[in-house]
Structure formats: structure tokens, C-alpha cells
Amino acid sequence: MSFDESVGKRLGIVTNLLQLDEQDTFFIFVNEAISRANLEVFVFDADDLSKDGCVMAKRIDGPITYEIREDLGERKVRVEIHDFDLVFLKKDPPIDASYEYLLKTLLQKKIPTVNHAAGVLGMGTKSYLENFPELTPKTFYSKTIKKTLESIKSIGNSMIKKSDSSGGKGVKHISYNSGNFYHYRYGKEISLSEEELSLIIKKYLEDSLDKTILIVEYLLSAPKRGDKRVVLLNGEILGSYIRLPDAKTGVCACADNGAKFCDPTKADYEIARVLRPHLKNHGICLAALDLLIGKDGTEYLSEINVFNPGFCNLDVVHPELNIKKKIIDMLCKKMLARGC
Ligand SMILES: Nc1ncnc2c1ncn2[C@@H]1O[C@H](COP(=O)(O)OP(=O)(O)O)[C@@H](O)[C@H]1O
Ligand SMILES: [Mg+2]
Which residues are placed with Cβ below 5 angstroms of ligand 2, an ion? Predict the structure, then answer.
């Protein structure tokens, strides 16, 4: 779809330019968006919104790359937030005070967003996985240090997760064996006292939005296979691939350790079918699932990314999907549906 049929639409993209990594889909999406006729593209961050409902935004007039992202701040223009026809939220968690204010302002002023601001707030923490016990590895959801320690003891080999973490920053491999706790650094097992572990748990609990920590059964086959990323557009599978973990830590964090071709399977379609009504109810148009493999070959749901789902590598392994066209078409369709 071209955007010629519209008369001067304004797309606002919310992101933190300095926090973007080279792999962020931001760059391919922005470059596709500016190629559409009659579409003005602006970029701003949550703290660019002032109390009077205006944002100081960067108007993007030419192609941008990771290398020149820092130079984009020179020509900021003042735009009233309700003058955007659509705001594309592409900002990683956690939701800090300024992001919360932006989301609430967008909701209050009824500005169309992708994903829906209420959905980002509603499905944006890992605690939402509690709705799918049949799809996840064995998981406890805890709000106290005591329950977290008991859960680690009960699971034995576990991954503990701050509920609103991202990029591998709030996850830790912890095990319990013969009365002792251990954590892991570059594949080395290091013992951890109950007091040290309690401090880590306390910090995770205090820092997370819903004061929750997840204690998840550690899947030994997960780092060997890597994370399967399944990208969903309007609840349907757009494509999938495997993200390879860091060779030293076994964790798939932000860095690009390479991607492997892997088409969706029957099991992936079944997971998408279960999630679809939840995504629809929360207005989540764009989501990326992380699936980890168990030793019996079962695909387990490990994460539902709704903030800024990364899937640049889908473009690498499946260029024929033309993901940038599909995503910008989806945004344009929403702007036209608004009837302005
Ligand atoms: N249960 C698990 N067993 C083994 N490895 C895991 C498990 N859960 C997560 N991991 C590893 O940790 C990484 C980060 O976990 P994830 O829940 O996706 O959090 P984040 O939001 O930080 O991406 C995953 O990509 C995966 O490599
Ligand atoms: Mg993840």
C-alpha cells in the first residue's frame, strides 16, 4: 500500500535514540516510513513531553542509520501531542515516571497508538505469563523474599527474573543443591550465601513495576538451541527465527550473536492461537514471543515482548517477508481508519 491516498499524516515514534542498539528495527521502519508520500515522521522520547501536552520532536527528513542517530537532535520542533495521527511506541521497559505519564496522556487524549498504551501497561510485565501455566516452564510468581527463597529451593535449578526486565538485564541463573545456593558467571558455578541472594531478590522486588519476581525452572537445552523468536502481527505469525545465545553466558541478551532460519511449527501456531484473544483485548498489534525448548522437545513460552519487539534478524533470514513494508502498511492503515 502506498500512502499517497492520505493527506498529510503525522507519525510520532517514541524511542530513546541513545539506548537503541544497532539491531533495532527502528532504523528500517523509520527509513520505510519516510519513503511514503504525505507522511511526516517525528521521533521523540517520553521525557520530551511537557505538561502542556506538547513534545519537542525531531522531524526525520532523510534516511537514518545507527551511526548518525546522535546527530538527530539538532532540529527539534514543537508538536502538540494530539496533532499526531498515530504514535508508534518503540521504547524498552521499564516504565519510568515519564513513560508512565506519556502513556497516560496518550490514553486520556485518545491518541491512537501501536501498541495500545493500556495494553502495554496491562501485558507489559512478565507476570502476565501467569495466565498461561500450561505454556510456560514451571514458574512461581513471588512478591516476598521468603517465598522466592522457598521457590528456588523447590525448583532446584532456576532462572530468577525481575518482572519488568529486558535485554537480559534482570535475569539470573540460581540453583540450590544440598543446602547451598549457587549462581553462574561465564559458565562457572559460584556459591552464594542466603543473605547475598536475599539482597538480589530484595532489589529485584523493589525495582520492578508490579513488585514481582519470577522463579522459572532452568531449561538446560535452552542455551544449546537458543531462543526461538516468533513475531506476531495482528495476532498472526509473521515469521520466526532462532536467536543464538552468547557463547560464554548462554543468555540471549541485546547483542546480535547471529540468527538461524527456523520456520514456525504446529506448536508455535498453537501458542499463537492461545495468545491471540489476549493480544486482541489489549490492543497489541505487534508482539514477539520468546520460546525455549525443553529436553523433551516441547516449546515453552518464556516471554511476550510488547514494548519494542526486536526482530531485525527476521529480515536477515527471511528478506522475502518484507517486514518493513508490512509494519509500516499496518501503521498507515490505522491512520487512515482514524478518518482524518
Ligand atoms: N527458563 C530458562 N532456562 C534457561 N534459560 C533461560 C530461561 N529463561 C530465560 N533464559 C535465557 O535468558 C534470556 C533472557 O530471559 P528473558 O525472560 O527473555 O528476559 P529478557 O526480558 O531480559 O529478554 C533468554 O533469552 C534465554 O536465553
Ligand atoms: Mg527475552
Answer: 290, 303
Angle at 11 between CA 9 and CA 13, to 5 degrees: 175
- Measured CA to CA, the distance from residue 292 to residue 228 in angstroms comes to 6
C-alpha–C-alpha distance, residues 73 and 68, integer Å? 10
Provide the percentage of residues in the chain whose pLDDT is more than 70.
Answer: 93
Asked if 14 and 98 sit in the same domain, the reply is yes
Q: Report residues whose beta carbon is within 6 angstroms of any ligand 1 atom.
A: 137, 159, 161, 165-168, 171, 216-219, 222, 227, 245, 251-252, 290, 292, 302-303
Rounded CA separation 135/301 (Å) = 6
- Looking at residue 73, what is its pLDDT? 63
Distances, alpha carbon 53 to alpha carbons 111, 180, 195, 339, in Å? 12, 54, 47, 22
Please identify, among 190, 217, 244, the residue that sits at the C-terminal boundary of a domain: 217
pLDDT of residue 2: 39
Side chain identity, residue 19: Q
Ligand that lies nearest to the alpha carbon of residue 250, given by its number in the listed order: 1
Question: 213-239: per-residue pLDDT in tens?
Answer: 999 999 999 888 899 999 999 999 999
57 part of a folded domain: yes
Indicate which atom in ligand 1 lies nearest the CA of residue 219: 3
Domain boundary residue, one of 191, 217, 243:
217
Give yes or no for a contact between 279 and 232, defined as CB atoms under 8 angstroms apart: yes
Residue 250 Cα to ligand 2 midpoint, Å, equals 13
> What's the CATH code of the domain at 203?
3.30.1490
Ligand 1 atom nearest to CA at 290: 18
* Boundaries of domain holding 65: 9-115+321-337
